[in-house]
Amino acid sequence: MEQTNASVTRTPLDSVAVKRKSKSRSYRQSYRSCLGVASRLGLTPARRLTTNRKAPESHNITVNPEHLALLVKNEWQLAYVTPLHQFRHTQLRSYARHLSAFVVAEKQQGLAVEVSGLQNGFKASMTVVQGMSEADDDPETVLIQIHSKPLFSRPDDPQKLVWSGWLTCINGNPEYLHSLPKDFTCLPLFVYKGAENLSSLVKSWVQRTFDCCFGPLELSQTSLQWLAALWTNCHAESNIQHLRMLWTLPSAPPLQVTYAVDPHDVWELWGSVRKGSWGDGAGEARWIDLEEVASFMQSLKSHFYRHFKLDLSAGILNQVSTALGSARFNGRIKISNSAYVITTLTLLTECALLKMPI
Amino acid sequence: MDESATRLLQRIVRRTPTEKLKATLEKWDRLTAAQRRSVDFTEPKWALIEKLVDACKENEFKMKHITELEMILVIENPNQGMWYTFQLVDPEDDAQSVDLLQFQEQFKSHLRELKRNVSVKIKKHTDQAVWIRIAWGDSFSRPNHLKPTYVVHQLQSPYIFVSSLTSKLKPLLLQALTFSTRHLAIKDANLSGRKLTAIRDLLMKEYQQVFPTKYPSPLAENNQTLSNLNIEREHAEASANRHRMAGEAFGDGTLPELQFAVYKMETKFKDPTNVAMTERDEPFRCVVKFSSTNLLESLRHCAASGLASTPVTPLLSSIPLKGRNYFVITDNAPGAASRAQQPQI
């Protein structure tokens, strides 16, 4: 039964929009225009707004627990990367050496005296993170880390991690991945954290070496709403503790509204909005429709409107957070629960693919 | 001058910007003319600290002189820290005739009975308010002057503003205040904010109010030329209405600067399109917090520009009307609209 639901709502390959009863016309118009753009530019129809996703479930991830712990405890910044040219997963060690040399050289630029190499030496390391990609087409995730000694440390002190970044592609659109020429590796999502000057150094090195380009990845309102719905859906398995949304309304001075809902109540609201069978607990993976997300958000906004006579649609959704993670409009994300890393990264990979200019 | 007084003086000088320090020292008026001349306010802070500590040591000041200086500083700059409002209720028969001296004595003695080793300083500022500074100690330690509690009692009103009070000491202070002002009880007024002047102005309604009138503008001429002036007239009328209702709800001109308002909502979810949720018995619990650099100004702008539908909902207009910024909203009688309810202390 889930399959027939999915086939009805899956977007067709030609550019005729499916006529269905949609509660909010703006969503229908926006993705219709997105399809129009794609076909006009002669792009493969592979990159379009997904209208349904698999409901997230906790995965037993076979990733090195250290790497997972690193991913979970920090807040990351997001960027998209165009496909990398002639990137070999086997040559990571030599890439790491080049990167270290590049960072050290850039840092020393402008200094007249040669600083002894060990003092502020930056050492980059690149490792493959096995087990993160789900689909067969996804290239393996690469973790880049830069260690360095703090300024006034003794020679015996170990080096500290000052910058880390992940190049990843989780469940990337298979048609798009196949449409790339042979030499290109597509790792569109770049998740990083660290000092701004190191980030720009790493980005410029990757751009020079692999002929690609970076850009900031902001999370659109739709993506934030997807995250709100997906995380709420997980409440059955792991307590989200609250669903907190931060809106900014354009008054003078700007008004910030923090709307935090009790987890059990918001879960019941989500259940009442879902079409199809509900309530048989965690069973097979079920699909979530964009319409359901839209009406979920609309219900929350209308409850707010009933009391305050303020329409939240007039403002911008800046941040969505639950105990499972938090996501911000300016492209920062924090995943607090390692079980849902894959689903969150899937959504982010898709955002990155959509935002890429190619 | 003992060590704790020195430390307090150093902290005061370090934390205060130099211009404010200069004005406060003049108001304090305890340094001799020679000492005042020797202090050069263009020097770096550490030099100033040393000079002032030496000057105070010369004059053999005690802790009470330094606390006097701190109190003058806080009275001049009350918009720091977090202030919480309380309201005295149930005055006894002689509450009106309590005079300042009586209040001082009773407050000090009652507080000392409740907690030993407290240091209390009371000062009447203009005719509006009484300021109290309390440094808490206990049977084993001397009063800690580095973490004082400040209390402001707005005269001619039942309101008391408190800052920097721990929850352990709260009942003691409230009891002493209630007793010495001859009331029977005190409750939380659910209004808090960073700027004391703002919350005080809000409660005392010391901002420009707009009162509803039947004819807000002079009656218009009857023979207006038609054509598309009609459209502008329609919009102008609606816009003028919105501005008027926004002003009636929140006030005119400069509004007191509140930073936030919190609503704890426990009302039922009602939506005709969503039958499952509407039939639920339990309320839909959520907490809504509005924050802005000037909350009332933002809300007035929302109402005037149409972001918020007018007439302004009583939930938002209660902020200036009742002088509160913390509300618990519940449904009352079946079918009744939700209204603000005061929580128990």
Please give a structural write-up.
The complex is a heterodimer of chains A (358) and B (345). In chain A, strands 2, 4, 5, 6, 8, 9, 10, 11, 13, 14 and 15 form an 11-stranded antiparallel beta sheet that branches. A two-stranded antiparallel ribbon of chain A has the order 1-12. In chain A, strands 3-7 form a two-stranded antiparallel sheet. Chain A contains 10 helices and 15 strands. In chain A, β13 and β14 form a beta hairpin. Chain A has 358 residues and is of the alpha+beta class. The N terminus of chain A is likely disordered. In chain B, a hairpin with a 4-residue loop joins β4 and β5. In chain B, strands 2-3-4-5-1-6 form a 6-stranded antiparallel beta sheet, with helices on both faces. A 4-stranded mixed beta sheet of chain B has the order 8-7-9-10, covered by helices on one side. Chain B has 3 domains: 74 residues, no CATH class; 120 residues, S-adenosylmethionine decarboxylase; 110 residues, Ubiquitin-like (UB roll) (Roll), CATH 3.10.20. With 345 residues, chain B is of the alpha+beta class. β11 of chain A pairs antiparallel with β8 of chain B. Chain B: Keywords: Centromere, Chromosome, Nucleus. Chain B: It is found in: Chromosome, Centromere; Nucleus. Chain B: Belongs to the CENP-N/CHL4 family.
